[in-house]
Amino acid sequence: MRRTDHPRFNTAVRQVEDSIDAAWDSFRAASGVPPEQARELAEIVLQDTSEFDWRVVDGALKQLTCPDCGAQLGAGDLGCPGCDRANGFRFAARETDRPGVPPGNEHAIRVSSAVARTRHRYTPRARAGYELLLPGLLDGALPTTAQAQRAKHLINQLTDEELEHLVDPADIG
Predict the structure, then answer these.
(1) What is the pLDDT of residues 128-146, one digit of tens each?
(2) Residues 15, 55: contact at Cβ < 8 Å?
(3) Burial code of 45-82, b = ≥16 C-beta within 10 A, e = fewer?
(4) Does pTM surpass 0.85?
(5) Taking the mean position of all CA atoms in its chain, how far away is CA 143?
(6) Are 92 and 50 in contact (CB under 8 A)?
């Protein structure tokens, strides 16, 4: 079974998507902006993403279409100027760790979920590493540097096809 077909992966991605949608909807409502004006609010958010939580920024990106490729802004193919620029915007946003998780967990969720949600923009090795971690990160885990380095070393030994069939971090050893 391919990782992208596995319920573990799909549940994690859906959980992140739901959290982004909820953050955006809450922000939009708190801003007093009706749903039909969400696009205008999203454009304002993207003017300075460092002022907002990353989920709000990702929610803003979901409201907009790339003028260069027509995809959801930031989700088009690698090399699309508009999407490459917008993808960078998401990484300037704020991230606040949830209570009870190790420092850095929220950053890891943001990066892992960006890879999992726009996987066509990343290499098979990056996808495997980040996607394998996402479910555990959502549960509050965070690998140590040594664990992450070991996983990267093992991932680098596998073919692209083998990487797509990894569904759990334990699968790599």
Answers:
(1) 999 999 999 999 999 999 9
(2) no
(3) bbeebeebbbbbbbbbbbbbebebbebbbbbbeeebeb
(4) yes
(5) 17
(6) yes
